[in-house]
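ok so I'm stuck.
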Amino acid sequence: TLDLSIVEPGVTTGFDVNGLLIQGGGTICASLDVAGAPVNVVTCEVPCTASAGTLGVNKHVCLGDGPLTISATPNGDAVVPAGYSTVYVLTQGPGLVIVNAGASPSFDVTEAGNYTIHTLVYDPATLDLSIVEVGVTTGFDVNSLLIQGGGSICASLDVAGAAFTVEACEEPCVADAGTLSGLNKVCLESVGTTITATPNGDAFVPAGYSTVYVLTQGEGLVIVGAGAEPSFTVTEAGNYTIHTLVYDPATLDLGIVEPGVTTGFDVNSLLIQGGGTICASLDVAGAPVAVLECGSFCEADAGTLGVNKFGCLGKGGITISATPNGDANVPAGFSTVYVLTQGEGLLIVNAGASPSFEVTEAGLYTIHTLVYDPATLDLGIVEVGVTTGFDVNGLLIQGGGTICASLDVAGAQFNVTACGDNGGELTVLNAWPVPAIEQLNVELVNERAARTEMAVYDMQGNQRTAPVAVGKGMERMVLDVKALPAGHYIIRMVSGDHVTTHRFTKVD
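replied:
not stuck anymore, here's the structure
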């Protein structure tokens, strides 16, 4: 019924044949798979196998008076086909302006800026590098000619490359105000009282720099005096601080200081150490001294204690001891006793004539010095295991009471752990800026196994921020302190019975 001789190859179409069939509207019973199996035959193209690979950044230093060499190291992942070459290209800025090229990924630069070293794998027969105009042509221009960039040339450019930020070297600021020592409190005489401090010999004054001593008043460190010696006469009671300032008169004009208005924090903010640009050093902490009305003045001073080394808690207990730092003042008729407290609540568990105690259980302990007059403070009121150090301090003038005596509330702290208990280190390494304004960055190390929390307390022991959990290992945290009034504060980290503190200052 169907004579295929009617088909003329190259002329007859499948549609012609299908038109004869019943399925195509004709009369012949036959079937043609019109859709069939389509095949698209294209001319074969040779793939571009060139690959520039990647580069690693080598260390470099800042840009000094002479040129700085920046260099990179190929990571070994480039592919260079036969007949192809490799060249390294140096570009500058985000626009990747080509500024140099060479056979090695190493270049000398003479100005600060952002640079990138790139690898280019290319065929000299297809890519003519003479088209590159140094300082005008960009890496993007070259890449657009390549297949990888939408062009037609088989070559490979590592567009990301090895990036370098070259900065001018800055001379370090070596000025150091050092520290001062002095009396913590004095009595205000009717004709005025002279308060003094003593340099501890740890200042460094570079050539051309000067030293001036500054007197501030209150927690806001309002500047009320300055002079060539750390000695000032005051005529009213209050909290004062003597500071050392080491500065270069050519860069810091002290004429900006308005007594009674400018603060030590204002001056510090101008300095590199306070986030400013001027090389100078101010001892912000200084030597604080409380000038008290003579009627309420108490000369007793418990001083401070240093922690002696101690081991872990064995089956037979352990001896913990401290060493007085020699800064106590015991007036005539007064006595000294050492008090052992346990836990954060400073629960009194022992007392004695020596700052050395036996303990038989793990926990947080503190040894305190108490300088007191037996005629005015009866230690019989202390009930071991019930009375706390805070209870005793509340009776004293320093704690808001009426009795002249001095208790070193901070004392010497000991975290006693059982032998074999690897509690790990808990340390605040650094906190900045100094002083803080809205945020405080805290860098710390926490190797403790127990849960660790950190919070901010004021100098009266009141918690001022909600506790935050501290992760294990090296941590950098940001504390929001903008709601705190200006003043001195303590970062307190607690892990089980272990406590670590770090002091900082907040300004508005």
